[in-house]
Recover the amino acids of this structure.
């Protein structure tokens, strides 16, 4: 099957997905072979984009970061257009292992935010919210975020080398140590490690792939 034929399968699927997901969800098909005019199909254009539009900067980064990865999709990340916010997910369209396009589903969060505000107002009206200020605070469990952050910092510190000066082998050793200790399975650990090492999240995933 040619690249064009493979992408066309997803173009034909897009109207079905838009009907199933509803008008609050935008369905977009990108052809990764043409950065400047990658948007070849769109349903429920709530972002204001149209056919013939360019690939976003994030999509270009995804293409570069995951071109050699076995991963097939990314889910539930934030997208923005002017004053609108979306919850985005992207499926990688592949042919013979190569990423040739993207199927993107972008959920408009404006309506959800309105419901959230109404529910919050109702809870406050009946004093069912946790107090913003309190004279007492009881901690019933270990602060996971703090522990995770400190463990990452400690492993990096033990190398005696600044992350900015580390070689690839030294970075792999740090990441391998954290992976083997289970720290990287904690929520937010990958992002925290990327920040402390001064690299991007996709870079951390590439290092993890090298360790496999």
């Amino acid at each position: 099957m040619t690249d064009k034929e493979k992408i066309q399968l997803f173009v034909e699927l897009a109207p079905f997905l838009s009907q199933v997901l509803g008008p609050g969800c935008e369905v977009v098909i990108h052809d990764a072979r043409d950065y400047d005019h990658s948007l070849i199909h769109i349903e429920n254009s709530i972002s204001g984009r149209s056919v013939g539009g360019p690939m976003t900067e994030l999509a270009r980064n995804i293409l570069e970061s995951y071109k050699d990865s076995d991963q097939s999709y990314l889910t539930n990340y934030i997208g923005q257009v002017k004053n609108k916010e979306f919850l985005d997910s992207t499926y990688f369209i592949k042919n013979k292992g190569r990423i040739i396009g993207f199927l993107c589903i972008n959920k408009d969060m404006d309506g959800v935010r309105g419901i959230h505000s109404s529910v919050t107002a109702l809870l406050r009206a009946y004093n069912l919210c946790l107090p913003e200020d309190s004279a007492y605070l009881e901690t019933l469990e270990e602060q996971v975020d703090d522990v995770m952050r400190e463990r990452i910092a400690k492993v990096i510190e033990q190398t005696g080398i600044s992350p900015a000066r580390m070689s690839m082998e030294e970075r792999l050793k740090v990441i391998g140590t954290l992976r083997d200790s289970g720290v990287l399975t904690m929520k937010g650990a990958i992002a925290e490690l990327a920040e402390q090492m001064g690299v991007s999240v996709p870079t951390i995933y590439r290092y993890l792939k090298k360790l496999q």
Observations:
- The longest strand covers residues 84-95.
- Residues 137-141 have pLDDT under 50 and may be disordered.
- Residues 3-111 form a domain with the Beta-Lactamase fold (CATH 3.30.450.40).
